C-alpha cells in the first residue's frame, strides 16, 4: 500500500531523495525572502460606511438600527432635512466595514485596494456603490478615503423552497478604491543604522545573515538576538541603496526539526532535520463491517397476507496481520519515509505512529498538530 500522505512532502522536499543520513545542504535564499527591514511595513486602515444601489438585498432596518441611523445622518448632511421621526423602509442600503492596507512609503494621491464587508443582515452586496468612507489608522488619523462601485466574487439566488449561495456575496473589493490623503512620516534616509528582522527567529540563521552582510559591505553588521540583525550605516552611504544590496544577498536559512500534522485532512509534513532513534514499529488494524440488505416478502397470489420488509444484517470482522518493522536510528528524511512506507499504513495510522514514537522519546523533533 503506498504512503499517500507523504506524496506532497516528497514533491516539496525532492532534493532530500537519495542523500546520506547526514541530511541535505539547505538551499540558499535571498535575505528579502526570509526577513523584513524595520520601518518598511504596511499599516492597517479601517472605516465604516454605506453601500447603496442594492437590488433589495440590503439591510432590513428593523434588524439593523445602526444602518437607519447612518442613512438619516448622511441625508441630513446632504441637506435633505431631519428624518429622525420618519419611518424609512429602504432595502437597497447596507452598512459595511471597509478595510485596507496602506503600503510603506505611500504618497499623497496614490490609490490602494479596499475590502468591503457587510455589517448587518444584507444578503448580497452585488451591484452596490460605496459612499465616501474615511479610513483611519490605529492613531485615529484619516489616511485615505474610499468610494466607488464594488465587485463581488460570489453570488446568491433563492426561490420559495430552495436557495443556492456560491462564495461570499457579502464581501467585496474595490480595486484602487481608496485615495491616500495623508502620508506616514518616516525619514528612511536619515537613519544611522538599519535593522533586519527575520520572519522565523533562529540564532543560526541570524548569524549567517550577519556573516553575509559583513562579507558584502566590509563589516558593520551584528546580530542582536535570534530575530534582529543591526547594520550600521557605512559612512554616508545611501540607505535605500544599502537595503537593496542587503536584500539581494543569499544565505542558507536553518530551522528546528519539526513534524506538522493536519489531522483533519490527513496531511503530514516532515522537516529534513527530523531524526529518530532506532525503534521497532508494529501497526495492526481491526475492521468491523456491518451490512444491511433490505428484502421484500410478498404473499402468494390469491392468498390472505400482506407484503412485509425483512432486513438482512451481515456482520464481518477483518483483522490485518501486524508485523514489526525496524526503523534505523539517526535516519534521514528519505530513510524515515521508506521505513513508514514499509509498514503500509494510511494517514490516520501514520499520525498515531508518529505520536507513539514521540511519546517513546525516540522522535527528536517538535510534533505540531494543527
UniProtKB/TrEMBL annotation:
Belongs to the FlgI family. This is Flagellar P-ring protein. It is found in: Bacterial flagellum basal body. The basal body constitutes a major portion of the flagellar organelle and consists of four rings (L,P,S, and M) mounted on a central rod. The keyword Signal applies. Assembles around the rod to form the L-ring and probably protects the motor/basal body from shearing forces during rotation. InterPro entries: Flag_FlgI (IPR001782). Residues 1-27 form the signal peptide. One of its GO terms (cellular component) is bacterial-type flagellum basal body, distal rod, P ring. Keywords: Bacterial flagellum, Cell projection, Cilium, Flagellum, Periplasm, Signal. GO terms for biological process: bacterial-type flagellum-dependent cell motility. GO terms for molecular function: structural molecule activity. It comes from Mesobaculum littorinae. Pfam families: FlgI (PF02119). Its main location: other.
Amino acid at each position: 500500500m503506498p504512503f499517500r500522505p507523504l506524496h506532497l512532502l516528497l514533491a516539496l522536499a525532492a532534493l532530500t531523495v537519495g542523500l546520506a543520513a547526514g541530511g541535505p545542504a539547505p538551499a540558499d535564499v535571498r535575505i528579502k525572502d526570509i526577513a523584513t527591514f524595520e520601518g518598511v511595513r504596511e499599516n492597517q486602515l479601517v472605516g465604516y460606511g454605506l453601500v447603496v444601489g442594492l437590488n433589495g438585498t440590503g439591510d432590513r432596518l428593523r434588524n439593523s438600527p445602526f444602518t437607519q441611523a447612518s442613512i438619516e445622518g448622511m441625508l441630513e448632511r446632504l441637506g435633505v432635512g431631519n428624518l429622525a421621526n420618519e419611518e424609512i423602509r429602504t432595502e437597497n442600503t447596507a452598512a459595511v466595514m471597509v478595510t485596507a492596507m496602506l503600503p510603506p512609503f505611500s504618497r499623497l494621491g496614490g490609490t490602494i485596494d479596499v475590502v468591503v464587508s457587510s455589517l448587518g443582515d444584507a444578503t448580497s452586496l452585488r451591484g452596490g456603490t460605496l459612499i465616501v468612507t474615511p479610513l483611519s489608522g490605529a492613531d485615529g488619523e484619516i489616511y485615505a478615503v474610499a468610494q466607488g462601485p464594488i465587485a463581488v466574487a460570489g453570488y446568491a439566488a433563492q426561490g420559495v423552497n430552495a436557495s443556492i449561495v456560491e462564495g461570499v456575496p457579502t464581501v467585496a473589493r474595490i480595486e484602487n478604491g481608496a485615495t491616500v490623503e495623508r502620508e506616514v512620516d518616516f525619514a528612511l534616509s536619515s537613519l544611522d543604522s538599519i535593522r533586519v528582522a527575520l520572519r522565523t527567529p533562529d540564532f543560526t540563521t541570524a548569524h549567517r545573515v550577519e556573516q553575509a552582510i559583513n562579507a558584502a559591505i566590509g563589516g558593520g553588521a551584528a546580530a542582536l538576538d535570534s530575530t534582529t540583525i543591526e547594520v550600521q550605516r557605512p559612512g554616508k552611504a545611501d540607505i535605500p541603496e544599502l537595503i537593496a544590496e542587503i536584500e539581494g544577498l543569499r544565505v542558507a536559512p536553518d530551522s528546528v526539526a519539526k513534524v506538522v500534522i493536519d489531522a483533519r485532512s490527513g496531511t503530514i509534513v516532515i522537516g529534513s532535520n527530523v531524526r529518530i532513534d532506532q525503534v521497532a514499529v508494529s501497526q495492526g488494524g481491526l475492521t468491523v463491517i456491518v451490512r444491511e440488505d433490505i428484502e421484500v416478502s410478498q404473499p402468494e397470489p390469491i392468498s390472505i397476507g400482506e407484503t412485509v420488509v425483512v432486513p438482512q444484517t451481515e456482520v464481518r470482522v477483518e483483522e490485518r496481520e501486524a508485523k514489526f518493522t525496524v526503523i534505523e536510528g539517526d535516519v534521514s528524511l528519505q530513510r524515515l519515509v521508506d521505513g513508514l512506507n514499509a509498514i503500509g499504513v494510511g494517514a490516520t495510522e501514520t499520525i498515531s505512529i508518529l505520536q507513539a514514537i514521540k511519546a517513546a522519546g525516540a522522535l527528536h523533533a517538535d510534533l505540531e498538530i494543527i
